[in-house]
TrEMBL record:
Record-annotated Gliding motility-associated protein GldM C-terminal domain positions: 414-520
Gliding motility-associated protein GldM first immunoglobulin-like domain mapped to chain residues: 229-324
Organism: Draconibacterium halophilum
Gliding motility-associated protein GldM second immunoglobulin-like domain location: 328-411
InterPro entries: GldM_Ig-like-1, GldM_Ig-like-2, Motility-assoc_prot_GldM, Motility-assoc_prot_GldM_C, Motility-assoc_prot_GldM_N
Name by which UniProt lists this protein: Gliding motility protein GldM
Domain Gliding motility-associated protein GldM N-terminal: start-end pairs: 17-224
Pfam families: GldM_1st, GldM_2nd, GldM_3rd, GldM_4th
Underlying gene: gldM
Length: 520
């Protein structure tokens, strides 16, 4: 159905709204791909556990499951590499300091983990030339056919229903002649990749990856069920519950499969959940829990099964899951901005998600963890906050998930103010000025432990005849010559101090505003 919708959209002019719709669909497909992959990993984990308990009985099926996993990973990698090639062929821009990410852009994560901006998501010529003229689509079709044949080899000839499902999921047949109107003949390759904009080609390739993962899931479940298919006398029976996650965000779906570890296809177990009998299909029942509010929820049940001797045995089970609100709080501990050259304290709260399951990453800088807090060290100035993003990820049941991203500004540490005796100018008594040792560079109302030291300044006084006398210093202290000049200044005359430079703790040099005093 999704493919039909996408094809219909392509019949329209490639307007910006259509391209954006494809971008949204592709993003959704990639999220679905991660979810299906997580479920497949749960099945492979069940194989590992079963093999530990009984390697003789499980060995044959685990070996096939390992082959299935490796072959599927190769197929997913092949399509991912093809995505990289399609994007590169039409043009790409690396995401870096000169080309930061922005909300409206279309980005692609490559196999090597780098992120690039897709330069021309509406490109019609490049994808067609690469996929059709250079026959990459034909190569892809051959890979799909080979993968489909491999899956079929793992399935028994008796299981025609599963075989038909795989053939349908990975179908590469050419459409019927004339299906596109006026007798025009279309191949599978041209139907999918000819005269399609780049964003549509990327979306279709994502769909193929999901088809591969779904087919892998069908066969993996089939192989796991085959462990006890040939033996009716089970040496162990037990209730099993496989949930998509034990921690879900509010509004997401909590789903779990309940089944007996060993299955007899001649009879179905009776399954009760929370005291009510539920529908059983292929030996399994599905429970969908409430996620409309946050909290911890417990559910339980009972599996009743008839042994070969006709005795009904019961196998109880109990599970719990936690629903968390999809929120994350991020705050700079001391300021609402980051300062370049400083270690900016940063706090993160994930609500019901433990701190040890949170990870913080950022663009334009580095993040280090110190206890339960973090230190942010920006790399470049970003006064407008356009290229500095802090993202928080959470690990939930082994799966890494983005739960929040915020934009931040990066400023330089402000200039200090030159002061003498705590004054930045104004009136000063002659005897007070004469006992001062030098000039201080003071950061006013700044919470960080950061200091400046004056490295040079020039003092000017008015001498006899109105001449200006200049006395330089190459440190923050008054020279002997400057001290003598202070002793000789007249009441109501002015002392001007300029050319002030100060070095910060980060090594930067700042030019400070001059200060002027009237002698009293």
């Amino acid at each position: 159905m999704m493919y039909i919708v996408l094809t219909a959209m392509l019949a329209l002019n490639v307007a910006a709204e259509v391209l954006e719709a494809f971008r949204v669909v592709d993003s959704s497909l990639l999220q679905t791909l991660e979810a299906v992959d997580m479920q497949n990993e749960q099945i492979y984990s069940s194989f590992e556990q079963a093999y530990i308990e009984n390697p003789t009985k499980v060995g044959e099926w685990k070996e096939k499951a390992d082959q299935l996993k490796n072959k599927s990973e190769e197929m997913i990698t092949y399509v991912s590499a093809l995505k990289d090639e399609v994007v590169a062929y039409s043009g790409e821009k690396p995401v870096d300091e000169d080309n930061p990410m922005y909300e409206e852009g279309f980005y692609h994560t490559k196999l090597d983990g780098s992120v690039v901006e897709v330069a021309k998501k509406d490109d019609l010529n490049g994808p067609s030339e690469l996929m059709i003229t250079q026959k990459r689509a034909t190569d892809l079709k051959n890979e799909i056919n080979e993968y489909r044949s491999f899956l079929s080899s793992l399935i028994s000839e008796d299981d025609s229903e599963l075989r038909e499902t795989i053939l349908s999921e990975l179908n590469t047949d050419d459409p019927e002649e004339g299906a596109k109107g006026e007798g025009n003949y279309k191949t599978w390759e041209s139907e999918h990749f000819e005269d399609k904009p780049l964003i549509a080609v990327m979306t279709l390739l994502s769909k193929i990856q999901i088809d591969v993962k779904n087919s892998e899931a069908y066969v993996a479940k089939y192989l796991y069920a085959e462990i006890d298919e040939g033996s009716f006398k089970f040496n162990r029976l037990g209730a099993r519950v496989i949930a998509n996650s034990n921690v879900v965000l509010m509004g997401d779906e909590y789903r779990a499969e309940v089944f007996l570890a060993a299955e007899d296809t001649t009879q179905q177990p009776e399954i009760l959940i929370n005291g009510r009998e539920v529908e059983v299909e292929d030996g399994k029942a599905t429970y969908i829990g409430n996620t409309s509010e946050a909290g911890k929820f417990t559910w339980s049940g009972l599996i009743k099964y008839k042994t070969p001797g006709g005795i009904i045995k019961s196998y109880p089970f109990e599970q719990e899951y936690q629903v968390s609100e999809p929120t994350v709080t991020m705050s700079a501990t001391k300021m609402n901005v980051f300062y370049k050259g400083l270690k900016n304290p940063f706090d993160v709260g994930g609500g019901a998600i433990p701190n040890e399951d949170l990870q913080v990453q950022m663009t334009n800088g580095n993040v280090t963890k110190q206890g339960d807090s973090y230190m942010i060290e920006p790399t470049e100035l970003d006064e407008m906050g356009r290229q500095t993003k802090v993202s928080v990820y959470a690990t939930i049941n082994g799966s890494r998930r983005l739960i929040g991203t915020t934009d931040w500004r990066v400023k330089r540490v402000p200039d200090p103010v030159a002061q003498i005796n705590g004054q930045a100018g104004g009136e000063i008594r002659k005897e007070v000025l004469s006992i001062q040792d030098g000039i201080l560079a003071v950061l006013e109302d700044f919470d960080f432990e950061f200091g400046y030291t004056v490295t040079q300044f020039t003092m000017e006084t008015t001498g006899q005849g109105g001449y200006i006398n200049r006395y330089p210093s190459n440190s923050n202290r008054f020279t002997a010559e400057q001290k003598r000049a202070m002793e000789n200044v007249n009441i109501n005359s002015h002392v001007y101090i300029g050319d002030i430079k100060a070095r910060g703790d980060d090594g930067t040099i700042r030019d400070l505003n001059p200060i002027s005093f009237t002698i009293k």
